[in-house]
Design goal:
The chain has 6 helices and 2 strands. The chain has about 160 residues and is mainly α. The protein has a two-stranded antiparallel ribbon with strand order 1-2. A hairpin with a 2-residue loop joins strand 1 and strand 2. Helix 2 packs antiparallel against helix 6.
Length: about 160
Amino acid sequence: MPSVYLIDDQAELDQFFADLADEFYGTRMRELMESEVAEVEEVERNSFANQTAPNGQAWAPLKPATIKRKGHSRILVETGRLGVSLTQSGHPDAVVEIVDEPGQGGFSRGTAVEYAGYHQKGTKRMPARPPVGVDEEYVDGFAERAADHLVENLKAGA
């Protein structure tokens, strides 16, 4: 049965909203953020498997000379270091930061591989082949998952 709150005056209404805000801003986000890191790693795995940017655009093809030098045509794969650093949180080059402070929750996921930025933005001699990022579908899903998490926390505190 849903909870019913009887408000007799403005002071009680003000207190109700103040308590609600305290619960909202006090929601712990670590569990959600850890699952989101895993979601982003899946996006990255798909990006490397499909050889596409996070927005679905195909990476520029390799030049024939590059394919000959590498011995294969897999884009952004020479040693595998970049891809693994973006798809496995435990990798030494993986950069994962989770913020779980009252009123703040978030995460960042990236790589410490020194040449990643050249691929992300391109150079004068090399087209951009962005391996890092998320698409609008992920962002929309994240917003829904975060809202659900907050609502469930508020319900549990009621």
